[in-house]
């Protein structure tokens, strides 16, 4: 049965590819520029002198070439978040996972192969914390002769939610990581690069979206924040969620949305209120004992030809620690059986032949370098393994069979079981460092259970898997019970996602068929946790044919320093 559903999916993709697909070319010039916000001047690494960066606009099934010119002072890479890149991990982008950095005064051209993705994705740097300012939207319109599964909107607007830091963020982060201290909180949040009117600086700008009465608009919302889930609302208007992570979902209405770092969400809004100016607003959401800074950033939803002011007292958003609002919103997300989505192809219980149970934790490790100001620095781990980046990329080492770069022995179970979400008194959970990969065969039906722990203040974790969209089949509070919890799984209409939020006192279960060979990064999209090692690598071995194997290594890949 699993093979039949896989074949139906192949037919869906083949049908898309028979449509007329275009090839697009973009030039990204990446250099440092100065931006003045909060009455301070900060130096940011940006693309084409803009913050956020340029939008890539394509149709489903197109191919995109992006020539990235590094005019900065240090190396970086760019990742095409949510693009599956079939058999093409070489251009996925994470530093030291699928490539080495693009060095200063050099360039590198990415080939981005779109397949079944539809709606909104995004691109961002994937080196250190560089993505804070090197990011932008990918808008994927319906293919030729394809329609939306809802009436075509009258207009659309991309909305990128961001974290803003005063000063040179790279220097700030490098110092924090070297000293073993936690990275700083953001100084503000931004909407499309604007800080709004809540931070007290008279020269700060506010984002404005102009709309016409009785028109309907598609909002393409991206959470590019570094470490913060975000609530978002437009006052006195109803938001209708229609897509998540470039896959359509069953339409539902809400006064607000909750979106995790890395996620994208398509939302319809009708301009059906009295003409005026209405605040749009965003604030963080957190269930951690160490919460982000609770700041509200504003924008304006403005009806055409209206002149007047907005009332700040009218802003209503769930409180930052309102976990009920968080869980209630997430629980309403369901897949939808529309022709514009690939056929729902959830691995059945009898299909599953690879099960992985992963605990997520924040830990500490001895800080050993000369810049340490503490004896124990922060670390983060999956199954008590804190990931270490190698000196060359894992993909190259795997493809060329270079030994000593990584190990194929990531543990499929945690080393010990305890009350993960309860009382940790007396629990001493040792952490090791290493570059250890999860290895599966092509065609395997995979189930991964992700379990939060209360280690290191607990809290949610947005986990992103490169190269795949997966089905979110289960979730619950407390500790996962392998005997009873699978009976609660949704195997009928689970949403298809690339980034899933694991609640701070609970677990989630995901399933997918391993049908995209390559080396694919899996990590927490809270940047501080990735910096501390909350990541691993999924290696999907080649199948038995050329069509089920990794494409040949391009000759243009950036050279690693030690090769």
Note down, in words, how this protein is organized.
Residues 1-21 form the signal peptide. GO terms for molecular function: copper ion binding; hydroquinone:oxygen oxidoreductase activity; oxidoreductase activity. This is Laccase. The chain has 563 residues and is mainly beta. It folds into 3 domains: 14-146, Immunoglobulin-like; 148-339, Cupredoxins -  blue copper proteins (Immunoglobulin-like, Sandwich), CATH 2.60.40.420; 349-548, Sandwich (Immunoglobulin-like). The chain is 9% helix and 37% strand. The protein is built from 5 helices and 32 strands. The strands form 7 sheets. The chain has a 6-stranded mixed sheet with strand order 10-9-12-17-14-15, with no helix packed on it. Strands 21-20-25-30-27-28 form a 6-stranded mixed sheet.
Helix/strand layout:
Elements: H1 2-18, E1 23-37, E2 40-47, E3 56-59, E4 63-70, E5 78-81, E6 107-113, E7 119-125, E8 135-141, E9 155-164, H2 169-179, E10 188-191, E11 207-211, E12 216-223, E13 229-234, E14 239-244, E15 247-254, E16 257-259, E17 264-270, E18 277-285, E19 297-303, H3 323-330, E20 354-366, E21 376-382, E22 385-387, H4 394-400, E23 432-434, E24 437-440, E25 445-452, E26 461-465, E27 470-477, E28 496-497, E29 499-502, E30 506-513, E31 518-524, H5 527-532, E32 535-540
Parallel strand pairs: 1-4, 3-8, 9-12, 11-19, 20-25, 22-23, 24-32
Antiparallel strand pairs: 1-2, 4-6, 5-7, 7-8, 9-10, 12-17, 13-16, 13-18, 14-15, 14-17, 18-19, 20-21, 25-30, 26-29, 26-31, 27-28, 27-30, 31-32
């Amino acid at each position: 049965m699993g093979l039949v559903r896989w074949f139906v999916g192949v037919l869906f993709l083949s049908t898309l590819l028979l449509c007329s697909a275009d090839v697009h070319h973009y030039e990204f010039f990446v250099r440092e520029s100065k931006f003045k916000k909060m009455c301070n001047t900060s130096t940011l690494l940006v693309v084409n002198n803009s913050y956020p960066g340029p939008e890539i606009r394509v149709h489903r099934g197109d191919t995109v070439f992006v020539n990235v010119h590094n005019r900065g002072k240090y190396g970086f890479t760019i990742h095409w978040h949510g693009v599956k890149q079939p058999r093409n991990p070489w251009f996925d982008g994470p530093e030291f996972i699928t490539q080495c950095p693009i060095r200063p005064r050099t360039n590198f051209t990415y080939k981005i192969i779109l397949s079944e993705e539809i709606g909104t994705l995004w691109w961002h740097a994937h080196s250190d914390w560089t993505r804070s300012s090197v990011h932008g939207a990918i808008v994927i319109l319906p293919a030729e002769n394809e329609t939306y599964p809802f009436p075509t909107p009258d207009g659309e607007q991309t909305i990128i939610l961001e974290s803003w830091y005063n000063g040179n963020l790279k220097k700030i982060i490098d110092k924090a990581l070297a000293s073993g201290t936690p990275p700083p909180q953001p100084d503000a949040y931004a909407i499309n690069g604007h800080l709004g009117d809540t931070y007290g600086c008279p020269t700060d700008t506010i984002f404005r979206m102009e709309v016409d009465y009785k028109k309907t608009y598609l909002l393409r919302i991206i959470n590019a924040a570094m470490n913060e889930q975000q609530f978002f609302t437009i006052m006195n208007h109803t938001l209708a969620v229609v897509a998540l992570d470039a896959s359509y979902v069953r339409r539902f209405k809400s006064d607000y949305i909750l979106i995790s770092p890395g996620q994208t969400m398509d939302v319809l809004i009708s301009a059906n209120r009295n003409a005026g100016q209405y605040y749009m607003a965003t604030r963080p959401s957190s269930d951690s004992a160490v919460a982000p800074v609770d700041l509200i950033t504003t924008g304006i939803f403005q009806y055409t030809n209206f002149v007047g002011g907005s009332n700040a007292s009218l802003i209503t958003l769930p409180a930052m620690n309102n976990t009920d609002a968080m869980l209630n919103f997430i629980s309403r997300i369901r897949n939808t059986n529309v022709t514009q989505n690939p056929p729902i192809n959830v691995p059945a219980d009898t299909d599953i032949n690879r099960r992985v149970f992963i605990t997520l934790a924040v830990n500490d490790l001895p800080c050993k370098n000369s810049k340490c100001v503490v004896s124990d620095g922060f670390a983060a781990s999956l199954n008590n393994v804190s990931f270490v980046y190698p000196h060359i990329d894992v993909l190259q080492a795997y493809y060329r069979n270079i030994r000593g770069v990584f190990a194929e022995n990531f543990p499929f179970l945690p080393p010990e079981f305890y009350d993960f979400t309860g009382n940790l008194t007396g629990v001493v959970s040792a952490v090791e460092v290493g570059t250890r990969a999860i290895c599966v065969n092509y065609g395997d039906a995979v189930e991964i259970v992700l379990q939060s722990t209360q280690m290191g203040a607990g809290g949610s974790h947005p986990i992103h898997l490169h190269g795949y969209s997966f089905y979110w089949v289960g979730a619950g509070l407390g500790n996962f019970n392998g005997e009873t919890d699978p009976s609660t799984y949704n195997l009928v209409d689970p949403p298809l996602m690339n980034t899933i939020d694991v609640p701070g006192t609970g677990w989630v279960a995901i399933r997918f068929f391993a049908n995209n060979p390559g080396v694919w990064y899996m990590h927490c999209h809270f940047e501080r946790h990735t910096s501390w090692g909350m990541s691993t690598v999924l290696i999907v071995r080649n199948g038995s044919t050329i069509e089920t194997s990794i494409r040949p290594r391009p000759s243009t890949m950036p050279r690693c320093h030690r090769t």
